[in-house]
Amino acid sequence: MSSRTVEYTVGRNPEMGVDGSVARSPLLPFDIPEPSLDTENMLINIGPQHPATHGVLRLVCELDGETVKRVIPHIGYLHSSFEKLGEYRTWNQIVTLTDRIDYLAPLIYNCAYVMTVEKLMEIEVTERCKVVRVICMEMDRIFSHLLWLGTTAIDVGAVTPFLYAFQERERIYKLHEAFTGARITTSATRVGGMMADLPEGWTDGLQNFIDTFLNTLDEIDCLLTRNQIHIGRSQGVGAISAEDAINSGFTGPNLRASGVDYDVRKDQPYYDYETYDFEIPVGRHGDCYDRYLCRMEEMRQSISLLRQALDRLPDGPIDVEDPNISLPSKTDCMSDMESMIHHFKLITEGIPAPEGDCYMAIEGSKGELGMYIVAEEGGTKPVRWRIRPPSFVNLSVLPKLAEEHLVSDLIMINASLDIVLGEIDR
Amino acid sequence: MKSGFDAIDEGPHLSESPTISLAGEISDPASHPSVAALLGRFGDAILHHRVSSGTQHVVWIDPSCNLEILRWLRDDPDQRYDMISDLTAVDYGAGRPINVVYQLFSTVYKRALRLRCELPLDGLEIDSIVELWSAANWLEREVYDLFGVTFRKHPDLRRILMPHDYEEGYPLRKDFPLRGRFSRAEQTRRALNQAVEHSYIAEEMELGRDPQQATPVNGTQEGDAGREVR
Question: ipTM value of the model?
Answer without folding.
Answer: 0.84
